[in-house]
Amino acid sequence: MYKIIKYVILDILRNRIVIAYMILLGLLGFSLFNMNDTASKGMLSLMNVVLIIVPLVSIIFSSIYLYNSSEFIELLVSQPLRRTNLWLSLFLGLSLSLGLAFLVGCGLPVLLFHADATGYMLLLMGFLLTVIFVSIALLAGVSIRDKAKGTGLSILLWLYFTLLFDGLVLFLLFQFMDYPLEKAMIGFSALNPVDLSRVLMLLKMDVSAMMGVTSAVFKAVFGSGIGQLFALMIMFMWILFPLWLSVRKFNHKDL
Question: What's the rounded Cα separation, in Å, for the pair 199 and 186?
């Protein structure tokens, strides 16, 4: 298992797309901090970039890497290896390599311009989003054999989590604005890891005016301390549940 993880990490870190991704994050970070008057404004701008780019690169790259490695996976399956260990090795290799690229690219400008609790929270949320969308990509990849359909599903999932979800929530709010929806909004927020990441970062920044509808309700009901703990627990569930489903599907899949 250790050898497979090491091979996947080294293979991905040599990939030009991952190197370009790391450099792009670094350039965006330095540019946003230098273009804004204060470091706090730069942090807000970088947060919006992270919430869009990190899930996109993580889910698309993981899906394509999984499909391109199908022959390598079939070869390993023919060896005396447990399928569960093989799948977890691929997951850890993808998560650690993409997470390292994010931490290096985004971490350098954050540590230079905003090395405090808010900056560390941004790095933590970016890393967790990377792992979450790698897990979702593996579930999509093992569920659909065709590369084009699997990649298309990954793009649709990214669009839902980053763009469509808040629109659906606002639509429901306007349709049922005469009813108390506070508890329901908390449940809706748990259905989107990107929204949960935004909640945790904005709670740490304490910028209530910049918070979306679900984030404001989340803060009003739970407060900063309990809200952060609850959201972190849900974030870890977003990692474990798709991974568990993908392991089950891979163990029973006819390659």
Answer: 11
Q: How far is CA 209 from CA 52, 168, 206, 212, in A?
A: 20, 21, 9, 8
146: tokens are 């065709």
Helix, strand, coil fractions of the chain, as percent rounded to 5? 85, 0, 15
What's the pLDDT tens digit per position in 101-145?
999 999 999 998 888 888 898 999 999 999 999 999 999 989 888
Residue with tokens 């593996």: 138
- DSSP assignment string, 209-255: GG--HHHHHHHHHHHHHHHHHHHHHHHHHHHHHHHHHHHHHHHH---
Q: Give, to the nearest 10 degrees, the angle between helix 39-68 and helix 83-113.
A: 160
CB-CB neighbours of 175 under 10 Å:
9
Cα distance between residue 166 and residue 184, in whole Å: 14
**Where do we find the tokens 């899949």?**
253
What does the pLDDT read at residue 72?
83
Residue 91 has pLDDT above 80, yes or no: yes
- Provide the 3-class DSSP secondary structure of residue 25: helix
143-162 burial, b if ≥16 CB within 10 A, otherwise e? Answer: ebeeeeebbebbeebbeebb
Q: Judging by beta carbons within 10 Å of its beta carbon (0-12, 13-18, 19+), is residue 18 exposed, middle or buried?
A: buried
Tokens describing residue 198: 């935004």
Residue 192 phi/psi, 5-degree rounding, is -140, 110
Domain boundaries, the chain: 2-252
**Residue 138 near residue 90, CB atoms below 8 Å:** yes
φ, ψ of residue 229 to 5 degrees: the values are -65, -45
